Amino acid sequence: LFAIILASPIMLLSVIMIKLTSPGPVIYKQERVGLNRKKFYMYKFRSMKVQTEEEEKTKWSTKNDPRKTKWGSFMRKTSIDELPQFFNVLKGDMSIIGPRPERPYFVEKFRDEIPRYMIKHQVRPGITGWAQVSGFRGDTSIEGRIEHDLEYIENWTFFFDIKIVFLTIFNGFVNKNAY
Length: 179
Known about the structure:
mainly alpha; 4 strands
């Protein structure tokens, strides 16, 4: 709740900019797989042109993705598009720290391709995590991401979470792989 209040001016500006620069809804909700493989809708500010449900289920965002809006590109580079996920935290679907949740299509794909992939569903997914602050964000190695997620799960401590929060604040919001 504190994060929502603190970020509310940025969120209000984002709502205005999204409405001024692109037709469609302000909030984008996407089905993700969370704790105990339970599906939930994760919220983000919409940073792309409106797509069909089928198009958005199976495509990764790429560096020069033509679907992104100009304001959307800025939001993605600065992680502003992620701010509505604090409402997911309030609802109990997500945590602030944890492995990033993935879309059902990719969970099914990776469960057979990547050893121990499904372990990440034994903890609540997070807005940020060890993989993200270690450079595994965006179009990076899924194996590296999972390796870091498992390292986080197996070595979790309160101080590990504090470290991830500080790394997110000081070098995680703006990331070369965030696009």
